[in-house]
Design goal:
With about 475 residues, this protein is an alpha+beta fold. It has helices at about 5-15, 20-25, 30-50, 55-60, 70-80, 85-95, 160-175, 200-210, 225-230, 230-240, 250-265, 275-285, 380-385, 390-405, 410-420, 425-435, 440-455, and strands at about 115-130, 130-145, 150-155, 180, 190, 200, 215, 300-305, 310-315, 315-320, 330-335, 335-340, 345-350, 360. The strands form four sheets. The protein has a five-stranded mixed β-sheet. Strands 8-11-12-13 form a four-stranded antiparallel β-sheet, with no helix packed on it. Strands 9-10-14 form a three-stranded mixed β-sheet, with no helix packed on it. The model has no long low-confidence stretch (mean pLDDT about 85).
Length: about 475
């Protein structure tokens, strides 16, 4: 085996006209080795040249128009120029011309001092939630020095979710860094990009609570936040792989456990075979301490109660007392709940529907039935006085209520008067006979009672 220097010497002497025997003697290698080096050089030169080199200008001309498709370029060369080129030769020409592959540039690295920088980004992931495959937004925050990570998932990622996530992430890290690097997302940025980006006023005020500031990298420079970017593939292939989740709260609870038990305890080569939790001990004293009071994250909304007694938030409906129909109320939307206020008085609170559309929440006591069931009607005094002692009378009272409905109280009052006025035995016989013939009119019942009274209690037969 000869080195590159000897190989180059052999080729130089051969090109100068020296014979193989003389080259072998000068370089002190065998003549077969010299012949092998010369044959290899000739084969390489032959492979570099191609009989299709003349079509390079045509390939260059049609490369963009054919959308980088080598098959389509070959068809154009054959149809328009009668220059058929085999596919393998065409792809080799494209590679040699450097049309597809960009020249690799030297990669650098970013080194941060403890407590100097944290990085935040989001990425869409496919996962299985409640036996359904859905797309969720994975939000991640990483400390630049120790690479400690915190992740959560959301159905969508708006400015509200960004504040909820960053609050939980900074509380998890037990402090914040002086700078938070983000991409050029409109969730945080009002307008502009990169160093010219203008942070939205409410996000700037939010960052001020934790003594940090948002900094956007320039467009196309995703490596600036590579410490958070490279973790997304690890999350997909480790945390999500083989896991099924019941709901969003179960998903985020298990995500925190994964950060604590897997991601932040795994040794990393870039940290000298130490885990992020070990290096975090060095960074913790340099983090900005949490404020004495962290204000809750919520969104204040103004909603008008519809005629059904609901307020609508994010396509979902939440009940309020029906006495407030048509009123304009204030709704406070937080990560886990919906609170409704009438001026300074809280009138309703509901668990927030996160993964639903057109859902409905009705609190107990907000909406009594519009049409009351007859079984739920309050028992009148007359009914209480008549029922509970005789089955035949209970049956007769139930028949009156069934047939007369809301007007039954007057008939029950008349029935009670009949019971109190006439003898009990005549009253019983008349009621039992009325039950056989379905007679529920108090006047006809009174006639029956009088017939029994006349026949049994008075001697109306003429004397002999």
């Amino acid at each position: 085996m000869i080195g590159n220097q000897q190989r180059q010497t052999i080729l130089t002497l051969y090109q100068a006209g020296c014979r193989i025997r003389k080259i072998s003697r000068l370089v002190k290698v065998s003549r077969n080795t010299v012949r092998g080096v010369i044959r290899g050089c000739k084969a390489e030169e032959k492979s570099r040249s191609s009989r299709h080199q003349s079509v390079e200008p045509l390939v260059q001309q049609h490369f963009e128009a054919c959308r980088h498709n080598a098959v389509r370029i070959g068809q154009v060369l054959a149809e328009q120029y009668d220059r058929p080129v085999p596919y393998s030769s065409l792809t080799r020409l494209i590679r040699q011309m450097g049309l597809r592959e960009q020249a690799s540039k030297r990669a650098g690295s970013y080194v941060f001092a403890p407590g100097e920088e944290m990085q935040h980004d989001t990425s869409p992931h496919m996962l299985i939630l409640a036996d359904k495959k859905i797309k969720a937004q994975c939000a991640s925050l990483v400390l630049g020095f120790c690479k400690k990570i915190f992740i959560q998932y959301y159905p969508c990622f708006t400015r509200f979710e960004a504040k909820v996530f960053l609050t939980e992430a900074i509380k998890y890290m037990d402090g914040s860094c002086g700078r938070c690097v983000i991409d050029n997302t409109s969730v945080v940025i009002a307008h502009g990009s990169g160093f010219d980006a203008v942070i939205a006023p409410e996000m700037e005020a939010f960052a001020h609570i934790f003594n940090t500031r948002f900094v956007a990298h320039r467009i196309g420079d995703a490596n600036r936040k590579a410490k958070v970017e490279r973790n997304f593939s690890y999350i997909e292939n480790n945390f999500l792989a083989g896991r099924v989740f019941t709901d969003w709260r179960d998903l985020n609870r298990r995500a925190v456990k994964w950060c604590e038990r897997v991601a932040n305890v795994k040794p990393k080569r870039s940290l000298g075979r130490l885990s992020p939790d070990h290096v975090y001990v060095q960074e913790k004293p340099h983090l900005t301490a949490l404020p004495p009071h962290i204000p809750p994250v919520y969104m204040s909304l103004v909603r008008k109660v519809d005629l059904s007694g609901f307020v609508t938030v994010d396509t979902n409906r939440y009940s309020v007392p029906e006495a407030l129909c048509g009123r304009t109320l204030e709704v406070l939307k937080s990560d886990a709940s919906i609170k409704v206020f009438d001026k300074d008085r809280q009138v309703a609170e509901h668990p927030r529907l996160i993964d639903q559309k057109d859902g409905k929440r009705v609190a107990k006591g907000h909406h009594p039935p519009l049409v009351r069931n007859s079984r739920q009607r309050p028992v009148s005094k007359e009914q209480q006085a008549l029922t509970g002692r005789y089955p035949w009378l209970d049956q007769y009272v139930a028949g009156i209520i069934k047939r007369t409905g809301r007007t039954s109280r007057r008939k029950l009052q008349k029935l009670l008067d009949l019971q109190r006025t006439y003898p009990p035995e005549a009253f019983r016989c008349a009621v039992e006979k009325a039950l056989r013939y379905n007679l529920y009119d108090p006047r006809r019942l009174e006639n029956l009672i009088l017939s029994f009274v006349a026949g049994e209690f008075f001697n109306l037969k003429p004397e002999d």
